[in-house]
Design goal:
Blueprint (H helix, E strand, L loop, with lengths): L5 H63 L5 H12 L12 H17 L5 H10 L4 H10 L5 H38 L8 E3 L1 H11 L1 H4 L3 E6 L7 E3 L1 H18 L4 E10 L2 E8 L29 H12 L3 E7 L2 E9 L2
Parallel strand pairs: 2-4
Antiparallel strand pairs: 1-3, 4-5, 5-7, 6-7
């Protein structure tokens, strides 16, 4: 009875896929709470913005009726619209310190109050936040009848507020879409045949996925060579490699420090380097970190499979190279993928 020599290889490959999937599920489980919190923030912001948007649109409709009584000309209405569209959007004054901003709001409100705008103190924060000040409003005082100015500025403020809230909804939904895309990219099962992969896209998805851990004290520096070509690779497996490397670096730094992600061309290879300024790996353990089930993390915090999977994915599946250089204050994991 003959045994097909391919059977042990197929079993080994099947086992590797199973281990990789289990490790992905375990990693997603570890990140689930952080991801839920990260997605809840833009979702809550979007919900609040839509609620405020309804009120702003109601106010704009009412003010449009009030504005109609002054029978403004086409040119006057165009000037109002142009003033709104030339605004800088919400956050134009975010660089101001609170005291300076308060003084600017008071000055704008006082200026409008002198023009007969009775609710000037309610209008000034929104207008100023969009970069609309005295210089932008002065042409309106010259072009509009004095008695129409209060209704015109109130209508302008409502329109500016509506556009700002729409931008906030767009920003929130974009953030949710990016997070969903990062999770989808991470859970990509991969294909048996390699495909052209942009490593920068995978690295950015990883940083987005782990932002809930990075934003509390890790400063990220990106040193990308964007001229690098795509590489033939299994995208799901590569994403798992980047996630393991960045997650390990964050843990090594205790959640606070400096993380550098670098890409470069190295001879006939594409180099991806993840560097942290943590305490480093003791020299006597450097050779053992690639062993399955060996981990330097405390009991219960690591499976010991992360680096072993990285080595198998890069070396065995992509015919690349994995190296590590470590000393106190600088640990660099280097991944080299063949460009040809």
């Amino acid at each position: 009875m003959s045994v097909d020599p391919k059977q042990p290889q197929e079993r080994l490959r099947c086992l590797e896929h199973t281990v990789l999937r289990q490790e992905k599920l375990a990693a997603l489980g570890r990140h689930a709470a952080g991801l839920a919190h990260e997605m809840n923030n833009p979702a809550s912001a979007g919900r609040r913005a839509t609620e405020q948007l309804t009120q702003a649109m109601d106010a704009q409709e009412d003010l449009s009726v009030a504005l109609d009584q002054w029978r403004l000309t086409q040119a006057q209405r165009q000037l109002l619209l142009r003033t709104c569209r030339q605004s800088q959007g919400r956050g134009a004054t975010r660089d101001m310190d609170p005291l300076t901003r308060g003084d600017a709001e008071d000055a704008l409100a006082t200026w409008m109050d002198a023009k007969g705008v009775v609710n000037a103190w309610d209008l000034s924060p929104t207008l100023l936040d969009a970069g609309i000040g005295e210089a932008q409003l002065e042409p309106l005082t010259q072009a509009l009848p004095a008695e129409a100015l209060p209704d015109a500025l109130a209508w302008l403020e409502a329109l500016v507020r509506t556009r700002a809230l729409l931008a906030e909804v767009r920003q929130s939904t974009t953030r949710l879409s990016e997070l969903a895309g990062a999770v989808k990219s991470y859970t990509h099962a991969g294909k048996e045949q390699p495909e052209p992969v942009d490593v920068h896209e995978g690295l950015e998805n990883t940083l987005l996925l782990l932002n809930y851990k990075l934003k509390h004290g890790v400063e990220v520096k990106r040193d990308y060579d964007r001229s690098l070509p795509r590489v033939q690779a299994l995208p799901g497996m590569l994403n798992h490699v980047w996630t393991n490397l960045v997650d390990n670096a964050i843990d090594a730094m205790g959640g606070k420090g400096h993380l550098t992600v670098r890409t470069a061309k190295d001879a006939d290879s594409l180099l991806v380097e993840v560097v942290d300024d943590g305490p480093g790996v003791p020299p006597e353990l450097l050779e053992r970190i690639w062993e399955p089930f060996f981990t330097t993390k405390p009991m219960g915090q690591g499976t010991g499979l992360g680096l072993d999977i990285i080595r198998r994915v890069i070396v065995d599946r992509h015919h690349g190279d994995v190296r590590v250089e470590s000393k106190p204050g600088r640990t660099a994991f280097q991944i080299r993928l063949p460009l040809k």
